[in-house]
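Subject: Sanity check before I submit

Could someone independently write out the structure tokens for this chain? I want to compare against mine line by line before I put it in a report. The sequence has 173 residues.
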Amino acid sequence: MQRSIDAMEVDFQSIRTGRASTHLLDRVMVEYHGSPVSLQQLASVSVPEAQVIMIRPYDPTTLKAIEKAILASELKLTPQNDGKVLRLNIPPLTQERRKELAKLVSRRVEEAKAGLRMHRRKAIEHLKKLEDDGTISEDEHKRAQKEIENLVHKFMVKADEAGKRKENEILEM
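---
Independent answer below. Compare away.
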């Protein structure tokens, strides 16, 4: 369950907040020799200024492919190509875009919660099987099921809190 929360928080790092961050490019995949390759494997990514991300390819011939991948990504950013590096200027987010990103955060929170519910269902099925086999008693089954419910509830609250933090970060001007 903790891994579901951790995966959600990693996803949150790739969501734009109006500030430059190298994590924005974590999900960008570049077509390189016919295979999708992560941008971090093809270039060094840095933040030289608060609103600028600089991408310096290890191999200059990949510059066009990287540019194409960024344009095709969900970032909605246009890179500036000077022939050696790409620069991404991170413009301030419009109110409309902030709302779109907040909805994206809500969707990712719901995906994490769906994963938690799946884990709960599997655990309860396992308990039922143990009870049917005679490995545990009905009382032990009920007690363990209650513990599972409490644990899942605790992780659901964690997911909601992480989502609220990210939404506040996006919506603050």
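---
OP: Matches mine. For the report I'm noting this point. Strands lie at 29-32, 35-38, 43-49, 52-57, 80-81, 86-89.
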